[in-house]
Amino acid sequence: MDSSLVAEKENISNDGFTVINDVYNADEVKAILDAIAAADQSNPAFRKTDDLFAIRQFLKELPQVVPLIFNSKLKALINILFGGSYFVTKSIYFDKPELSNWFVAWHQDLTIVVDKKAEIAGYGPWTIKQNQFGVQPPLPILQSNFTIRIHLDDTNGNNGALKVIPGSHNKGVYRPETINWDKETEAACNVNGGGVMIMRPLLLHASNRTTNGQRRRVVHIEFSNVELGGGLRWGEKAVI
């Protein structure tokens, strides 16, 4: 394994995240953005307001971006860092516009998207959003999953880069109201356009309002290597 990726793997294990730049070059980033711009934005999966533009089920709704997203560098990263058994379980594109003034409070990503609602031990509570069922699964599933956030713009604390609490992914379900700031340390996750942030879903994270008039466009993709119990299926499973 490349020595730099050994360090990235240790970062993911110990801190719950890592940042890797230069996964996409400028032409590859432009190709992804051009595909998004050319899409039919009247589609119900597209949500557009003054503060946010989002596309749920992104890879399903825009299959033309799949080969652009999963270039040789990203596929190699996934294989080296996690192995070849992982598949996509959820994908979202979102654009935090220049004048956006919303922020995201501290939280963990505790919910997965599934195909139906069923009363199964260890699964709950349930939600439904835009005709998709969400549920909190048993903790081992969340512990095995990971997320890749592909940054299409330079992102820092002034335009809503994530801030995280390193190591919080190793503490199970960690309620934000119980954060002990005498013991915890906040870290900023600045990422260059064309870079990626890789994180565990149990990592506590948040983001601030945009203050520098610059956009933050991100493709958020979640992965798992675990099949669900009780007849449940992943709502957006895709093998890449």
List the helices and strands and how they pair.
Elements: H1 3-15, E1 17-20, H2 26-37, E2 46-48, E3 53-56, H3 58-61, H4 66-69, H5 72-82, E4 87-96, E5 104-107, E6 112-114, E7 126-129, E8 132-135, H6 139-144, E9 146-151, E10 162-164, E11 187-188, E12 196-199, E13 205-207, E14 216-224
Antiparallel strand pairs: 1-12, 2-3, 3-4, 4-14, 5-13, 6-8, 7-8, 9-12, 9-14, 10-11, 10-13
Give a short summary of the structure.
The chain has 240 residues and is an alpha+beta fold. It contains six helices and 14 strands.
Task: Provide an overview of this structure.
21% of the residues lie in helices and 26% in strands. It has 240 residues and is α+β, with helices and mostly antiparallel strands. Strand 7 and strand 8 form a beta hairpin. The model has no long low-confidence stretch (mean pLDDT 92). It is globular. It has one domain: Jelly Rolls (Sandwich).
